Amino acid sequence: MRQQRVSVFNILNGLFLLSLSLTVILPFLYMLAVSLSPASESLGGKFYLIPKEMTIEAYRYLFSTARFTHSIFNTIYITVVGTTFNVLISIMLAYAISKKTLPGRKYILYMMLFTMVFNGGLIPSYLLVKWLGLLNSYWALILPGATSAFTILVMKSFFQNLPESLEEAARIDGAGEVRTLWSVVIPLSMPIIATFSLFFMVSHWNSFFGAVIYLNDSAKWPIQVLLRLMVIAGDANIASENALDFELVGKVGDNVKMAAILIAMIPIVAVYPFLQKHFAKGAMLGSIKE
């Protein structure tokens, strides 16, 4: 009787998980089907998962426009440079804070915790970026969010849990702080580094609000800003040099919009499997203190 109840539960649980998975997968399949369909078929607004006629004209159109390809390169540049800068700053600051012999360590921790509770707001942040001369620069999207108190505290906890004997052995061999950090601490900290690298990467790849606020030149816009013009604002004329040219609104079908969304999603989706094993292990390691 007990075995029968367990089997029924397994069946119901499997059906629930299957339906939950379908609610996630079906929208992606729909977008893929629409992106591979002709413009005349996508304009009909019908729901289908298999296009009657498959074509890559939407993708060909997107990659033939300079604005779309430039936005992709802009996003790649912001993501690579921003993620590298964020990870380096976070590692160096967290490693320094993890040392109890650091002068003023307590006050630095208090200042970091203060930033988790209070925020200057949008207008002061904009004025600061303007005063630093970073307006219309990619650094306006990177420097203000170089790291966060949460990232530093989790990394600090992870570094403190590493065996001190390893660092002592490195110093006995003549290694300094930089060499110890590079050769001993970082290789042992790859799970937590990969976890926050993924966080930073997703944040930069999806950067939208900061780009709208700080970047006035449409040639420097990342892909998310262009997607907003195409999908929400309805600007289908992405080949135009004028970023706000609505002359051809509605003349491009949903196949182009769906293709643009998929192209913007694929890089992050493709990177995650390579970091998944580190992500699953490092998501909790830094938050547990032995």
From TrEMBL:
Its main location: membrane. Residues 72-275 form the ABC transmembrane type-1 domain. Keywords: Cell membrane, Membrane, Transmembrane, Transmembrane helix, Transport. The chain crosses the membrane at residues 12-33, 72-95, 107-126, 138-159, 180-202, 256-275. It is found in: Cell membrane. It comes from the Bacteria. It is a multi-pass membrane protein. This is Aldouronate transport system permease protein. Coiled coil: none annotated. Belongs to the binding-protein-dependent transport system permease family.
